[in-house]
């Protein structure tokens, strides 16, 4: 898929734990306090705004720039910065007047023209909006954006011919998919079924694995009577990204015989779709500020767009602005298929913030309201596992697997997770069975190959198979320090210390700050006589925050070295090969 297709559509999924439903028992919104005080001086507020902006704290940046501007209202630089900060924070009543002030001293400011044009579309002043989109200095992406938004302004004026002609100026091969995607949306909105079908077919034929296109095309088909083809479209995507809440909800609606309505019902929605696509790809490419602005403008036009809200929350998550992300997830409409996704993500962020009690209560409420929701249950199992409640985690994963008795490839991860939980609770037979089942469902999965192979080596059993698995895992994940560490540690457990050093040094290069890998390399260095280097690695492992049960062992090695005779894994089993 081309870069420009990505620009318009974004990712094929939303979040790692996406799922949706409503939390009926909800009594109040999640509130996470974020207190800060404005300064008493221009310089203090300005510096605070700069720091907040660098940290992508959009609320604080917008507040401090606004306060600084009160003290120096004619400062053009402050006006520019306050405008951008207000846009990024979604404060449109403040941003739009600031944009007008920006244009008063910088008539070529593309962002200010874009914001004004979006606001004019919202006011249904379509010709004026087009005039704004045509102004300002720009680059290739701005030209694409202005073309798409201009097309939607024609659609708002019911001028289908000019809307489609404007889109067809995007004749580069890289633009074909999103050109026809938006042409299909416009033609359908304006009642031209034949043109819409032709355009949707063209876009779908070129790109079948993009969620937004799949959903739009399936909804178009269902609306116009071809419900079976709509189901096929959803099911085809489900094979690529199983159990996505949007496709799951679409299929459920079709199976129940209920109508599926288009998600673009106006020019506002269509223009919002353009901006959503730009924001989604910007966040993934590391351009968070641009992503925030595009998504905020999208929500200005379509405030209830759950996908845009969740995507914006995800951007804040990746910027480590957990409180802002929680606020956004809490604002997802209750009837959205992404509601459970939002609740789960909010609970996990509360855990990240150290609010374990609130996280547990929130996630428990989600599971209670949605007892058969696999994503909510998976999140609960993962939370239990992270807290070392391995028996509870294994029970939760079993509960999920029982919901779908006929195992398919998508369940490998659940067997893997349950295998880890069982291994950590010292139930190796159950763990081994789970890990083998995960490999049966996904035979070349490097995480499972690594875990099962490492476990066999550590027990001194099935060594030929174990080394084959570990080498294959390294082939598949050559840049994964943990996987390379497993192979190195396997060599160590077999007494092949020179080979252990070679692999563990590679692992350290990949994961220099991991205490376990540093500890392993220290052991290997000691065994080959490099005792000074061993001491260095153990000291480094000590300083990197190892698990509490490992720290005394590391301290003992720092003090005494390795005095005991090493136990060779292969001595334990008649099935050793190495």
From TrEMBL:
<dbReference type="Pfam" id="PF13414">
    <property type="entry name" value="TPR_11"/>
</dbReference>
<feature type="repeat" description="TPR">
    <location>
        <begin position="481"/>
        <end position="514"/>
    </location>
</feature>
<keyword id="KW-0732">Signal</keyword>
<dbReference type="InterPro" id="IPR019734">
    <property type="entry name" value="TPR_rpt"/>
</dbReference>
<dbReference type="InterPro" id="IPR011990">
    <property type="entry name" value="TPR-like_helical_dom_sf"/>
</dbReference>
<feature type="repeat" description="TPR">
    <location>
        <begin position="374"/>
        <end position="407"/>
    </location>
</feature>
<keyword id="KW-0802">TPR repeat</keyword>
<protein>
    <submittedName>
        <fullName>Tetratricopeptide repeat protein</fullName>
    </submittedName>
</protein>
<feature type="repeat" description="TPR">
    <location>
        <begin position="412"/>
        <end position="445"/>
    </location>
</feature>
<feature type="signal peptide">
    <location>
        <begin position="1"/>
        <end position="24"/>
    </location>
</feature>
<dbReference type="Pfam" id="PF13432">
    <property type="entry name" value="TPR_16"/>
</dbReference>
